[in-house]
Amino acid sequence: MVKRIVDLRSDTVTKPTETMRAAMEGAEVGDDVLEHDPTAFHLESEMAKIMGKEAGLFVPSGTMANLISVLVHCESRGSEVILGHNSHIHIYENGGISTLGGVHPRTVKNNDDGTMDIDLIEAAIRDPKEEIVFPTTRLICLENTHCNHGGRCLSVEYTDRVGQIAKKHGLKLHIDGARIFNASVALGVPVDRLVQAADSVSVCLSKGLGAPVGSVIVGSNSFIVKARRLRKTLGGGMRQVGVLCAAALVALKENLPKLESDHKKARLLADGLNKIQGLRVDTSSVETNIIYVEIEEFSGTTAIKLCKDLEEYGILLMQTGLSRLRVALHHQISESDVQFALSCFQKAVNGVQNENGN
Amino acid sequence: MVTRTVDLRSDTVTKPTEAMRAAMATAEVDDDVLGYDPTVFRLETEMAKIMGKEAALFVPSGTMGNLISVLTHCDVRGSEVILGDNCHIFIYENGGISTIGGVHPRTVKNNSDGTMDLDLIEAAIRDPRGEIVYPTTRLICLENTHANSGGKCLSAEYTDQVGELAKKHDLKLHIDGARIFNSSVALGVPVDRLVRAADSVSVCLSKGIGAPIGSIIVGSKSFIAKARRLRKTLGGGMRQVGVIAAAALVALQENVGKLESDHKKARLLADGLNEMKGLRVDPVETNIVYVEIEEGLHISAGKIVKNLEERGILVMDVSPSRIRIVLHHQISASDVQYALSCFQHAVKGGQSENGN
């Protein structure tokens, strides 16, 4: 029996559409290592223009995009990078900036809204006078939208202020903009304005934008030249990569306009979930396409159990704590999927309550 | 005016065929990081079987295939790897095993046939008794076919001998098998037999096999589990990667059978070039041809390359007097003849300039 699957684990699960597949099939390609694959060139130029930077570079993943960006900004031995204690780079990228790149991380507390206090960032910058015992701070990283903090948006004002701090101290600013388009749409700020203060940005094409593979790094010409070389060193130099870039170009065109409706669906789902006795959602913090669901103690269920129960209905979620779930909306989740998910959540939670005689 | 282009710079220039493009468009996919993509799973399972190893991992490039393999075998700080002084990992991979992986290279001279003398390999293995000043040797790397030596094949016997040496000293053996299928075909040895002694092999799908992107690492289950994690760390964890794995599956089916004819074309080209006054061609075993420009010709490799380019023939000058040519399935026999006539023109130019 074919079960209806509603995959809410992540926006990375998006599958290529018919138009993307057709584009991949007909893509003009070349050897992107020996010269420049024409479709990759087209995508990279397009992305640079959209983001208001000089150049772009296609890479296989967001992890590589961040890794390259940090390592290029911190190319001297003995470098340190300031980043959020709960940022994706620090938590979910295998510590690669250190284990592979030799860069030392200096974390600053992420607030619930994804920001770090400006004064705490400044306090974390190493005083060059004590360099005999200190590494050298070279880079600040922001994350927009902030994944672990519910897909919250960093405002353009905040980003500019961090940019000013960076400039004041001779540091670079990198934005992990895996979901930067979600931020731009939710804030109503053009994306190039949003990242104006940044020296580099990594942007995922394979998340909400729905391409099958890849991310793009944008930055200055000289930065991207170094990034291209490091990409080769890390093993990200692909040959006829235009086949993937063609899908990404379609994704940019087709799915950018759909992000707003992903946010609407998220709000709908969040409101509905919050109404279910036994679940709690901080609906005011749902700004884009990510929802964190707290499971109340009295509900009698746990994140693992609820995930399992919902899986039987065909609803796939991510467990992020003993009593916490994450839900991510994307363009391949319909409104009727949202309603279906809500009713399954209701059934699953009620079912447990009935079991426990509630 | 549209010039006919005959791209002999590398077998990496192969473009996806109609069948590959169709396969990419219809590929069954899923998130290969959150779970697994069914098409890449099929490819990895198939490759492991073909190579006679327990498991396999798809990676974006041969460079990543080798980097992951070296770093996984040498996952303890203070490791050293023995490899050829003229091998691809040492010369053309940006020194990544050291700059990214912290592994120390110990080179041993590559002979002109791509091998390293067994006694020299053994002599390069660090004596553990000297560990206070030595790094620890953990790995030996071979390259088959050996690119810089002209696509030369390492025999199964030689590979086995190096494998025995590795075992004797408790080292691992990795084969950079970017063109391992070329070797297998040229030697008439099944590929799994050829790499039997190896703990891991990296195999390119984007070279002679003609897929648009990617390589495969094969090895034991536990090795591949570690490799998968390191692949993620390096940034090679791709999502709906089945779109390119589908092309690779077609490539395996369509193009392994064509490698023998690539070798024939290479020999044809080599013989033709060797007959030209002023050119000398190294012996050809697979799909790579090195052409030496003899001193008497008084024309540089760079000049010949430029001259050929004007006629649409693309080749690579690797030194002022040396040109590399690589054959692949998208070069026809008529392309080979055309290339020969263009070379003749280019060389005659040099000869007539010098009154030969």
TrEMBL record, chain A:
A GO MF label:
L-allo-threonine aldolase activity
List, in alphabetical order, the GO biological process terms annotated in this UniProt record: glycine biosynthetic process; L-threonine catabolic process
**Which SUPFAM superfamilies does the UniProt record give?**
PLP-dependent transferases
Query: Carries keyword Lyase?
Result: yes
Q: What class of enzyme is it?
A: lyase
Q: What does this protein do?
A: Threonine aldolase involved in threonine degradation to glycine. May play a role in the removal of L-allo-threonine.
**Name of the protein described by the UniProt record:** low-specificity L-threonine aldolase
Query: Which organism's genome codes for this protein?
Result: Arachis hypogaea
UniProtKB/TrEMBL annotation, chain B:
Reaction catalyzed: L-threonine = acetaldehyde + glycine; L-allo-threonine = acetaldehyde + glycine
Q: What is its EC number?
A: 4.1.2.48
Q: What pathway does the annotation place this protein in? A: Amino-acid degradation; L-threonine degradation via aldolase pathway; acetaldehyde and glycine from L-threonine: step 1/1
Q: What keywords were assigned to this record?
A: Lyase, Pyridoxal phosphate
What are the required cofactors? pyridoxal 5'-phosphate
An annotated GO cellular component of this protein is:
cytosol
Task: Specify the Aromatic amino acid beta-eliminating lyase/threonine aldolase domain's residue ranges.
Answer: 7-294
Give the signal peptide, or none: none
The UniProt function text for this chain reads:
Threonine aldolase involved in threonine degradation to glycine. May play a role in the removal of L-allo-threonine.
Q: State what protein this is by name.
A: low-specificity L-threonine aldolase
Source organism of the structure: Arachis hypogaea (Peanut)
